[in-house]
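Model: You mentioned two targets. I'll fold them one after the other.
Researcher: Yes, keep them separate.
Model: Target one:
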Amino acid sequence: MPQFVMLTFDGAVNAGNMAFYRELLDTSRRKHKQSGCGIAATFFTSAEYLDYQAVNQLHSWGNEIALKSIRAKRNRPYWQTINTTEWEREVVDQRAMLTAFANVPGSDVTGFRGPFLITGGDQGFRMLHRRFRYDSTLIHQRARGERPFYPYTMDFGFRRSCNVWPCPEGSYPGLWVLPINVLFPKHTEGDLPCAMADACLPQPVTAEDTFEYFKSNFEEFYTTNRAPFPVFLHEAYLKHPERKAGYLRFVDWLLQKDDVYLVTASEVLRFMANPEPLSAYAKRPCTGQNVRMTEHLSPGRRRAPTRILHQEASAT
C-alpha cells in the first residue's frame, strides 16, 4: 500500500507565507515519482488575518482547505466551555465565509482542528458529527518504538487517554478521527513526545538536524505499520532558514521513493474508505492545476467584513 505523508499548516494564509507555499508546491520541482502528480497539503485556516484570494489559489491548485475557528481567542477556558451552538458560530460560520469570500465550495471543507488542540469534548463533537467529515485534534500518545495509529471512525467513541481536556465521551458513528500521532525529538534522553511537529524540544537549528528529525520520525511509520505520517506545524516554524532548508530537503527525499505520496488529509480518508493496491493508486489521475514559482497573487485581495453572518447554521 502507499505510504501517505500529510503536510498540514495551521493558521492564516496571507502574503506573509504564500511565497513559501508556492515554493513548496511548485510542480516544476516536486512531483511524485510514479504518478507524476504534484504534492498537496492541508491548510487548517483561522479567519484572523486570512487572505481569501490566497485561499482560493491554494484550493485551485488541489490543496485542501480545512477549519480552525473564526476568532483567534487565546483564552483556553473559552474553548473548553462553549456549547455546541457557539462552536457552530465559530466553525460552521467560518466555512460559510470561505464559500462567500474565497469561492471554496462548502462541500470541499470537511475537516477541523481545534484551537490549542481543544475539541470542546462532546459539545464540539456534536457540531462536528452534524456538519463535518473528520476531526484532527485528538492527540494519540505512544512510547517511542510503539506503532502509530491509523485514522478511524468514532462509532465506538474515543478510547484513548485524554491529553487536552475536555475529550468526547460519546460515540459519533461515521465521523472520522485523523489522529495526531506524537513525534519524538532526535538525540534526547527524555523521549518527551510532541503533538505538533514544531513543538518538539529542543528545536533543530541546522538544516541537517531538521532533516534528520523528520526522517527519523518518518521511518518509525514507514518501517512498521505504515500509518499516515503527520507533518503538522505552523509555517512560522519554517521562517528559520536552516529549518526551512531541512524541511524542503526532507520533502525532496520522500519524493525519491516509489511508494510515498504527499497528499491531503481528505485523500487519506478517501483511501481508508476505499483502499487499493499501490500499483492502481499510482495510475490515478492528477488533480488541481500546475503550480509555478512565477505565479503571483493578483491585486485586490478580499477580506471578509468584520460582521459575521451565521448563514449556514441558521439555514438548517
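Model: Target two:
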Amino acid sequence: MLTVEQLTNRFETAFDPRQSQVLAEAFAETANGLARSSDLSDLKDVVADLGRTVQDLAAAQQDLAAAQQRTEANLAELTLVVKGLGQDMDDLSRTMKGLGQEMGGMSRSMSYALENEAYRLLPPLLASKYGITLEERLVRTEINGEEINIFAHGTRNGEPILLVGESKLQLDERRNSHRALDRLMDQLERKVAAVKEAYPDAEIVQLLITHYARPAIRERAEREGVILIQSFEW
C-alpha cells in the first residue's frame, strides 16, 4: 500500500501540490477503510474510479490551459488592433487639422478678396444710397491693437464721420449665421471701441459687407444702426 507521501508525489505530476495532498489523503483514507473491511474488490473499483477522475481532471486542466492560451492570443491580437486604431485616429486627427488650416486659409483669402473688391466699388454706392462721401480711399489698418478691415474718413450730409466696417462671406440663418452674426457684431463693436478711443469726438458709421444676407439678417442690422451691403449691390 502506497503512503500518503508517495501518493502525493504521484498526483503532483498532474495537479498542483495542494490538490495532490488532498487527493492523496482522501485516497489513503478510503483505502485504509476498505483494507480494514477486507473489501479489496471495492478498493479496486474505487481506484479505477479515482483514476478516471484523475484523467478527467487532467484533461480539463489541459483544456483550460489551451483556452487560456487562446484567450491570451486573442487579447494580444486585440491589443495590436486597438494600437493600430489609435494610430489611425492620430493620423485622421492630423489630417483634419491640416484640412481645417487649409479651409481657414481659403476663407481668409476669400474674405480679403471681398474686401479688396469693396475698396474699389463701395465709394459710389455709399455716396448715392447713403449720402456718404469718402475723403480718402478705403483701407485695411490697425488702430489700438485692433485690425480694422474697412476704414476711411468721410462726410455724411456734410458732417464728418469715420467709416468702420467688417466683412463676412455669407450671412444665412439657415446655416446658423445668427450666431455668426452675433460674433461678427461683437467683433465690430470691439473695432468701433478701439476707433472711438483713438478718435473720441468722431461720429462712427458702422458697416458690414457680405456676398449675401437673408432678409432677417438685414432687418436686424438695420435695427442696430449698421449699414449692411451685399456685393451684388455695387
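Researcher: Noted. Anything on target two?
Model: Residues 40-130 form the longest helix (91 residues).
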